[in-house]
Design a protein that fits this description.
Layout (H helix, E strand, L loop, with lengths): L18 E3 L5 E3 H11 L6 E4 L4 H13 L3 E6 L6 H9 L3 E5 L5 E6 L6 E3 L2 H4 L4 E5 L5 H8 L9 H8 L6 E3 L8 H6 L3 E4 L3 H8 L4 E2 L5 E3 L4 H10 L4 E4 L7 H10 L25 H10 L1 H20 L12 H8 L30
Helix pairs in contact: 1-2, 2-10, 5-12, 8-9, 11-12, 12-13
The structure holds iron/sulfur cluster.
Protein backbone atom coordinates (compact mmCIF):
# COMPACT_ATOMS: atom_id res chain seq x y z
CA UNK A 1 0.00 0.00 0.00
CA UNK A 2 1.29 3.42 -0.94
CA UNK A 3 1.93 5.63 2.07
CA UNK A 4 0.97 9.25 1.72
CA UNK A 5 3.62 10.46 4.12
CA UNK A 6 1.65 10.93 7.28
CA UNK A 7 2.90 10.04 10.72
CA UNK A 8 1.38 6.81 11.95
CA UNK A 9 2.89 6.75 15.45
CA UNK A 10 1.13 8.52 18.30
CA UNK A 11 4.42 9.41 20.03
CA UNK A 12 4.46 12.96 21.38
CA UNK A 13 0.68 13.32 21.01
CA UNK A 14 0.19 14.38 24.63
CA UNK A 15 0.94 17.90 23.40
CA UNK A 16 -2.23 17.96 21.27
CA UNK A 17 -5.29 19.81 22.49
CA UNK A 18 -7.28 16.85 21.17
CA UNK A 19 -6.08 15.18 24.37
CA UNK A 20 -7.27 16.73 27.60
CA UNK A 21 -7.26 15.76 31.26
CA UNK A 22 -10.43 16.39 33.21
CA UNK A 23 -10.65 17.69 36.78
CA UNK A 24 -10.13 14.17 38.08
CA UNK A 25 -6.96 13.67 36.04
CA UNK A 26 -8.68 11.31 33.61
CA UNK A 27 -7.32 11.40 30.08
CA UNK A 28 -9.78 12.19 27.26
CA UNK A 29 -8.19 11.48 23.96
CA UNK A 30 -10.45 12.08 20.96
CA UNK A 31 -8.04 10.36 18.57
CA UNK A 32 -7.86 7.20 20.65
CA UNK A 33 -11.63 7.22 21.14
CA UNK A 34 -12.16 7.40 17.37
CA UNK A 35 -9.67 4.55 16.84
CA UNK A 36 -11.37 2.44 19.53
CA UNK A 37 -14.79 3.13 18.01
CA UNK A 38 -13.88 1.95 14.53
CA UNK A 39 -12.20 -1.10 16.01
CA UNK A 40 -15.23 -2.04 18.09
CA UNK A 41 -17.79 -1.78 15.27
CA UNK A 42 -15.68 -3.33 12.48
CA UNK A 43 -18.02 -5.34 10.20
CA UNK A 44 -16.94 -8.65 8.65
CA UNK A 45 -17.17 -7.23 5.10
CA UNK A 46 -15.09 -4.07 5.62
CA UNK A 47 -16.28 -0.55 6.26
CA UNK A 48 -17.66 1.58 3.43
CA UNK A 49 -15.90 4.91 3.85
CA UNK A 50 -17.89 7.79 2.33
CA UNK A 51 -14.93 9.86 1.18
CA UNK A 52 -15.29 13.35 -0.25
CA UNK A 53 -11.65 14.44 -0.27
CA UNK A 54 -12.60 17.17 2.22
CA UNK A 55 -10.82 17.71 5.52
CA UNK A 56 -13.18 15.56 7.60
CA UNK A 57 -13.02 12.54 5.34
CA UNK A 58 -9.21 12.60 5.10
CA UNK A 59 -9.09 12.59 8.90
CA UNK A 60 -11.46 9.62 9.10
CA UNK A 61 -9.41 7.73 6.53
CA UNK A 62 -6.29 8.28 8.63
CA UNK A 63 -8.16 7.04 11.73
CA UNK A 64 -9.23 3.87 9.91
CA UNK A 65 -5.69 3.30 8.77
CA UNK A 66 -4.26 3.85 12.25
CA UNK A 67 -6.87 1.46 13.68
CA UNK A 68 -5.79 -1.25 11.22
CA UNK A 69 -9.38 -2.14 10.25
CA UNK A 70 -10.62 -3.15 6.80
CA UNK A 71 -12.28 -0.48 4.66
CA UNK A 72 -13.16 0.45 1.09
CA UNK A 73 -12.99 4.07 0.02
CA UNK A 74 -15.93 5.42 -2.01
CA UNK A 75 -16.19 8.80 -3.68
CA UNK A 76 -19.57 9.77 -5.11
CA UNK A 77 -19.09 11.88 -8.20
CA UNK A 78 -21.66 14.67 -8.20
CA UNK A 79 -20.53 15.91 -11.63
CA UNK A 80 -20.20 19.42 -10.16
CA UNK A 81 -17.13 18.72 -8.03
CA UNK A 82 -14.36 21.35 -7.94
CA UNK A 83 -11.71 20.09 -10.41
CA UNK A 84 -8.90 20.77 -7.94
CA UNK A 85 -10.63 18.51 -5.43
CA UNK A 86 -11.04 15.67 -7.92
CA UNK A 87 -7.37 15.95 -8.89
CA UNK A 88 -6.37 15.94 -5.22
CA UNK A 89 -8.45 12.81 -4.57
CA UNK A 90 -6.98 10.96 -7.56
CA UNK A 91 -3.43 11.86 -6.50
CA UNK A 92 -3.92 10.05 -3.18
CA UNK A 93 -4.47 6.68 -4.86
CA UNK A 94 -2.80 4.22 -7.21
CA UNK A 95 -5.95 2.94 -8.85
CA UNK A 96 -9.48 4.20 -9.44
CA UNK A 97 -12.38 1.80 -9.80
CA UNK A 98 -15.29 3.41 -11.62
CA UNK A 99 -18.55 1.90 -10.33
CA UNK A 100 -20.98 2.36 -13.21
CA UNK A 101 -24.75 2.88 -12.82
CA UNK A 102 -25.54 -0.57 -14.27
CA UNK A 103 -23.57 -2.26 -11.46
CA UNK A 104 -20.50 -3.00 -13.59
CA UNK A 105 -17.13 -1.36 -13.00
CA UNK A 106 -13.96 -0.36 -14.76
CA UNK A 107 -10.46 -0.21 -13.35
CA UNK A 108 -8.00 2.54 -14.09
CA UNK A 109 -4.50 2.58 -12.71
CA UNK A 110 -3.24 6.03 -11.89
CA UNK A 111 0.27 6.62 -13.09
CA UNK A 112 2.22 7.36 -9.91
CA UNK A 113 -0.43 9.75 -8.67
CA UNK A 114 -0.29 11.98 -11.74
CA UNK A 115 -3.30 12.83 -13.84
CA UNK A 116 -2.45 10.25 -16.50
CA UNK A 117 -4.94 7.44 -16.29
CA UNK A 118 -4.72 4.22 -18.22
CA UNK A 119 -7.02 1.18 -18.23
CA UNK A 120 -5.93 -1.64 -15.99
CA UNK A 121 -7.03 -5.15 -15.19
CA UNK A 122 -8.30 -6.39 -11.83
CA UNK A 123 -4.99 -8.23 -11.35
CA UNK A 124 -2.86 -5.19 -12.00
CA UNK A 125 -4.62 -3.16 -9.32
CA UNK A 126 -4.76 -5.93 -6.71
CA UNK A 127 -2.88 -4.81 -3.60
CA UNK A 128 -2.83 -1.20 -4.74
CA UNK A 129 -4.33 1.66 -2.82
CA UNK A 130 -7.72 2.00 -4.57
CA UNK A 131 -10.68 4.32 -4.52
CA UNK A 132 -14.14 3.61 -5.94
CA UNK A 133 -15.64 6.48 -7.93
CA UNK A 134 -19.41 6.04 -8.12
CA UNK A 135 -20.80 7.36 -11.39
CA UNK A 136 -24.40 8.55 -10.89
CA UNK A 137 -27.30 7.43 -13.10
CA UNK A 138 -28.07 11.06 -13.93
CA UNK A 139 -25.63 13.97 -13.89
CA UNK A 140 -26.57 17.24 -12.18
CA UNK A 141 -27.46 18.66 -15.60
CA UNK A 142 -29.75 15.72 -16.41
CA UNK A 143 -31.36 15.90 -12.95
CA UNK A 144 -32.19 19.59 -13.39
CA UNK A 145 -33.82 18.94 -16.76
CA UNK A 146 -35.61 15.86 -15.44
CA UNK A 147 -36.95 17.60 -12.31
CA UNK A 148 -37.70 20.78 -14.27
CA UNK A 149 -36.52 23.12 -11.52
CA UNK A 150 -33.13 23.93 -9.99
CA UNK A 151 -32.12 22.31 -6.68
CA UNK A 152 -32.97 24.52 -3.71
CA UNK A 153 -32.38 24.45 0.00
CA UNK A 154 -35.64 22.65 0.72
CA UNK A 155 -35.77 20.65 -2.49
CA UNK A 156 -32.25 19.27 -2.56
CA UNK A 157 -33.13 16.32 -4.74
CA UNK A 158 -29.56 16.23 -6.02
CA UNK A 159 -28.15 15.14 -2.65
CA UNK A 160 -30.48 12.18 -2.56
CA UNK A 161 -29.68 11.19 -6.15
CA UNK A 162 -25.95 11.94 -6.17
CA UNK A 163 -24.74 11.40 -2.63
CA UNK A 164 -27.06 9.66 -0.22
CA UNK A 165 -28.26 6.56 -2.00
CA UNK A 166 -25.09 4.53 -1.58
CA UNK A 167 -23.77 2.09 0.99
CA UNK A 168 -27.05 0.27 1.64
CA UNK A 169 -26.48 -2.83 3.77
CA UNK A 170 -23.00 -1.69 4.78
CA UNK A 171 -21.59 0.06 7.82
CA UNK A 172 -20.85 3.46 6.33
CA UNK A 173 -18.15 5.51 8.04
CA UNK A 174 -18.49 9.26 7.61
CA UNK A 175 -16.73 12.44 8.65
CA UNK A 176 -19.99 13.99 9.85
CA UNK A 177 -19.45 16.41 12.76
CA UNK A 178 -21.84 18.27 15.07
CA UNK A 179 -19.80 21.42 14.56
CA UNK A 180 -21.05 21.63 10.97
CA UNK A 181 -24.75 22.19 11.68
CA UNK A 182 -27.40 22.19 14.38
CA UNK A 183 -29.48 19.79 12.24
CA UNK A 184 -26.72 17.21 12.42
CA UNK A 185 -26.60 17.57 16.18
CA UNK A 186 -30.28 16.62 16.30
CA UNK A 187 -30.12 13.82 13.75
CA UNK A 188 -26.73 12.16 13.97
CA UNK A 189 -24.82 10.45 16.73
CA UNK A 190 -21.75 8.27 17.06
CA UNK A 191 -23.90 5.54 15.54
CA UNK A 192 -26.96 6.37 13.42
CA UNK A 193 -29.28 3.68 12.09
CA UNK A 194 -31.89 4.73 9.57
CA UNK A 195 -35.01 2.64 9.92
CA UNK A 196 -37.85 2.78 12.42
CA UNK A 197 -37.45 -0.91 13.25
CA UNK A 198 -33.96 -0.33 14.63
CA UNK A 199 -35.61 1.09 17.76
CA UNK A 200 -37.26 -2.30 18.43
CA UNK A 201 -33.89 -4.04 18.19
CA UNK A 202 -32.34 -1.46 20.51
CA UNK A 203 -35.09 -2.02 23.05
CA UNK A 204 -34.68 -5.79 22.89
CA UNK A 205 -30.97 -5.33 23.52
CA UNK A 206 -31.45 -2.80 26.32
CA UNK A 207 -29.43 -0.19 24.41
CA UNK A 208 -29.76 3.55 24.98
CA UNK A 209 -30.85 5.59 21.97
CA UNK A 210 -32.72 8.69 20.80
CA UNK A 211 -34.97 9.01 17.78
CA UNK A 212 -34.06 11.20 14.84
CA UNK A 213 -36.39 12.89 12.40
CA UNK A 214 -35.84 10.34 9.63
CA UNK A 215 -37.42 7.46 11.60
CA UNK A 216 -33.97 6.31 12.63
CA UNK A 217 -32.16 6.07 15.92
CA UNK A 218 -29.05 7.78 17.16
CA UNK A 219 -26.71 6.30 19.74
CA UNK A 220 -23.77 7.94 21.43
CA UNK A 221 -22.50 4.91 23.29
CA UNK A 222 -20.07 2.22 22.27
CA UNK A 223 -21.08 -0.31 24.89
CA UNK A 224 -21.89 -3.97 24.27
CA UNK A 225 -25.63 -3.31 23.78
CA UNK A 226 -24.96 -0.72 21.07
CA UNK A 227 -22.55 -3.06 19.32
CA UNK A 228 -25.15 -5.83 19.28
CA UNK A 229 -27.71 -3.46 17.77
CA UNK A 230 -25.27 -2.53 15.02
CA UNK A 231 -24.45 -6.17 14.34
CA UNK A 232 -28.12 -7.05 14.09
CA UNK A 233 -29.13 -4.06 11.98
CA UNK A 234 -26.35 -3.35 9.58
CA UNK A 235 -27.33 -5.81 6.86
CA UNK A 236 -30.91 -4.66 6.67
CA UNK A 237 -30.62 -0.99 7.49
CA UNK A 238 -28.30 1.82 6.61
CA UNK A 239 -25.93 2.09 9.54
CA UNK A 240 -23.61 5.02 9.87
CA UNK A 241 -20.62 5.30 12.14
CA UNK A 242 -19.44 8.85 12.75
CA UNK A 243 -16.17 8.51 14.68
CA UNK A 244 -15.29 12.22 14.75
CA UNK A 245 -18.80 13.52 15.42
CA UNK A 246 -17.67 15.57 18.46
CA UNK A 247 -14.52 17.03 16.87
CA UNK A 248 -14.32 20.76 16.33
CA UNK A 249 -12.81 22.49 13.27
CA UNK A 250 -9.72 23.17 15.38
CA UNK A 251 -9.43 19.48 16.30
CA UNK A 252 -9.59 18.52 12.62
CA UNK A 253 -6.87 20.96 11.57
CA UNK A 254 -4.69 20.12 14.54
CA UNK A 255 -4.86 16.43 13.63
CA UNK A 256 -4.13 17.11 9.94
CA UNK A 257 -1.04 19.17 10.77
CA UNK A 258 0.20 16.93 13.59
CA UNK A 259 -0.02 13.82 11.40
CA UNK A 260 1.13 15.48 8.15
CA UNK A 261 -1.96 14.41 6.26
CA UNK A 262 -2.02 15.73 2.67
CA UNK A 263 -5.05 17.97 2.11
CA UNK A 264 -6.59 19.77 -0.85
CA UNK A 265 -4.88 23.11 -1.31
CA UNK A 266 -8.20 24.85 -2.01
CA UNK A 267 -8.33 25.20 1.79
CA UNK A 268 -5.27 27.45 1.60
CA UNK A 269 -7.11 29.83 -0.73
CA UNK A 270 -9.87 30.73 1.72
CA UNK A 271 -12.31 27.84 1.10
CA UNK A 272 -13.60 26.54 4.42
CA UNK A 273 -15.89 23.84 3.00
CA UNK A 274 -15.41 21.93 -0.22
CA UNK A 275 -18.29 20.42 -2.13
CA UNK A 276 -20.49 20.84 -5.15
CA UNK A 277 -19.87 24.05 -7.08
CA UNK A 278 -22.98 26.25 -6.79
CA UNK A 279 -24.63 24.25 -3.99
CA UNK A 280 -27.71 26.19 -2.80
CA UNK A 281 -27.15 25.02 0.78
CA UNK A 282 -24.31 27.45 1.34
CA UNK A 283 -26.42 30.57 0.62
CA UNK A 284 -26.35 33.12 -2.19
CA UNK A 285 -22.99 34.71 -1.40
CA UNK A 286 -21.16 31.39 -1.46
CA UNK A 287 -23.04 30.30 -4.57
CA UNK A 288 -22.05 33.45 -6.46
CA UNK A 289 -18.46 33.24 -5.24
CA UNK A 290 -18.14 29.64 -6.43
CA UNK A 291 -19.75 30.27 -9.82
CA UNK A 292 -17.40 33.19 -10.35
CA UNK A 293 -14.42 31.09 -9.41
CA UNK A 294 -15.40 28.22 -11.71
CA UNK A 295 -17.04 30.04 -14.68
CA UNK A 296 -17.20 26.89 -16.76
CA UNK A 297 -19.63 25.42 -14.25
CA UNK A 298 -21.71 28.59 -14.40
CA UNK A 299 -21.99 28.16 -18.18
CA UNK A 300 -23.00 24.54 -17.75
CA UNK A 301 -25.69 25.42 -15.21
CA UNK A 302 -27.07 28.16 -17.50
CA UNK A 303 -27.21 25.70 -20.35
CA UNK A 304 -28.95 23.13 -18.09
CA UNK A 305 -31.48 25.81 -17.09
CA UNK A 306 -32.13 26.54 -20.79
CA UNK A 307 -32.90 22.87 -21.36
CA UNK A 308 -35.00 22.82 -18.18
CA UNK A 309 -37.14 25.74 -19.47
CA UNK A 310 -37.58 23.93 -22.76
CA UNK A 311 -38.79 20.82 -20.91
CA UNK A 312 -41.22 22.95 -18.88
CA UNK A 313 -42.55 24.58 -22.05
CA UNK A 314 -42.98 21.19 -23.64
CA UNK A 315 -45.01 19.99 -20.64
CA UNK A 316 -47.09 23.17 -20.51
CA UNK A 317 -45.75 24.34 -17.15
CA UNK A 318 -45.85 27.99 -16.20
CA UNK A 319 -42.71 29.51 -14.78
CA UNK A 320 -42.05 30.43 -11.20
CA UNK A 321 -40.63 33.89 -11.75
CA UNK A 322 -40.56 36.57 -14.41
CA UNK A 323 -36.82 35.89 -14.55
CA UNK A 324 -37.47 32.40 -15.82
CA UNK A 325 -37.37 33.44 -19.47
CA UNK A 326 -33.87 32.16 -20.21
CA UNK A 327 -31.17 30.03 -18.60
CA UNK A 328 -29.37 33.21 -17.58
CA UNK A 329 -32.54 34.52 -15.93
CA UNK A 330 -32.97 31.30 -13.95
CA UNK A 331 -29.33 31.62 -12.87
CA UNK A 332 -30.02 35.14 -11.57
CA UNK A 333 -33.08 33.90 -9.72
CA UNK A 334 -31.17 30.92 -8.34
CA UNK A 335 -28.33 33.04 -7.01
CA UNK A 336 -30.54 35.56 -5.24
CA UNK A 337 -30.90 38.38 -7.74
CA UNK A 338 -34.58 38.72 -6.76
CA UNK A 339 -34.33 37.78 -3.15
CA UNK A 340 -35.76 40.99 -1.69
CA UNK A 341 -38.79 40.74 -3.95
CA UNK A 342 -39.21 37.04 -3.31
CA UNK A 343 -37.49 35.85 -0.11
CA UNK A 344 -38.94 32.36 -0.50
CA UNK A 345 -37.10 31.46 -3.66
CA UNK A 346 -34.35 29.36 -2.14
CA UNK A 347 -36.89 27.62 0.04
CA UNK A 348 -39.22 26.91 -2.87
CA UNK A 349 -41.07 23.63 -2.38
CA UNK A 350 -41.17 20.92 -5.01
CA UNK A 351 -42.56 22.29 -8.26
CA UNK A 352 -44.31 19.29 -9.64
CA UNK A 353 -47.78 20.27 -10.73
CA UNK A 354 -47.62 23.39 -12.77
CA UNK A 355 -50.39 23.55 -15.29
CA UNK A 356 -52.93 26.23 -14.54
CA UNK A 357 -51.15 27.79 -11.59
CA UNK A 358 -50.54 31.51 -11.77
CA UNK A 359 -47.04 32.80 -12.24
CA UNK A 360 -45.21 33.58 -9.02
CA UNK A 361 -47.19 31.15 -6.89
CA UNK A 362 -45.41 28.50 -4.81
CA UNK A 363 -46.33 25.71 -7.18
CA UNK A 364 -45.78 27.29 -10.56
S1 LIG B 1 -25.38 20.67 -4.78
FE1 LIG B 1 -25.59 20.68 -2.52
S2 LIG B 1 -27.58 19.80 -2.22
FE2 LIG B 1 -26.93 19.20 -4.30
S3 LIG B 1 -25.77 17.25 -4.16
FE3 LIG B 1 -24.33 18.86 -3.94
S4 LIG B 1 -24.16 19.16 -1.69
FE4 LIG B 1 -26.08 18.10 -2.08
Amino acid sequence: MKETGYKASREGDDELSLIVYDLFGEKRDKVQRAIDLVRSFEPPDKYYLAYSGGKDSIVVEAILRMAGVGYEIHYNMTTVDPPELVRFVIRQFEAVIYDLPDGSFKYFAVNGGSRLLFPATAQSVTGKRCIHFTIPKLSMRQLIVHKQFPPTRLARYCCEALKESHGEGRVVVTGVRWDESAGRKRNQGTVTIFNGKAAQVAEQQGARYNNNRARGIIMNYDDAATRRVVEMCYRTHKTMLNPIIDWTDEDVWEFIHAYNIPYCKLYDTGCTRLGCVGCPMGGYAAQRRELKRWPQYRKLYVSAFDDMLEARRRDGKLNHSSLWQSGEGVMQWWTGYERKANPEQVAMPLLTTAVGVTEGSETA
